[in-house]
Amino acid sequence: MGKILEAIATDHLCVEPVIYEGDSKFNRARNRYCTLGEKLMAKLNEEERKMLDDYSAAQNEESVLYGIDRFVKGFRLGVLMMIEVISDEDDLILHEGESV
């Protein structure tokens, strides 16, 4: 069995992006995000913090759903490209009596 099929079958397929902790762009973005978040939370009262948490959760849910849709569409596009490549394979073969 192929490695990808085995990973799917055993629930070991990881399609989550891997962000490297040593990446300076990632570290700068994360530090800025954390710093701004801490400053904002310090200015909010309890009710406002709850509202911001709810807002963040809703935003995260929307982002996850969008990412799933992009993944599915990209996967389908890849499969359709493979079908196109396979279905046109006969065009690559010169049959008896044909010329280039």
Could you characterize what this model shows?
- By secondary structure, the protein is mainly α.
- It folds into 2 domains: 1-43, no CATH class; 46-88.
- It has helices spanning 3-9, 24-43, 46-87.
- The relative contact order is 0.04.
- The mean pLDDT is 88.
Whole-number tally of structural domains? 2
Helix content: 55-70%
Low-confidence spans: pLDDT under 50, at least 5 residues? none
Shape assignment: elongated
Sum up the structure in keywords.
DUF6809, mainly alpha, 3 helices, 100 residues, 69% helix
Brief overview:
Helices cover 69% and strands 0% of the residues.
Break the fold down into its secondary structure elements and pairings.
Layout: H1 3-9, H2 24-43, H3 46-87
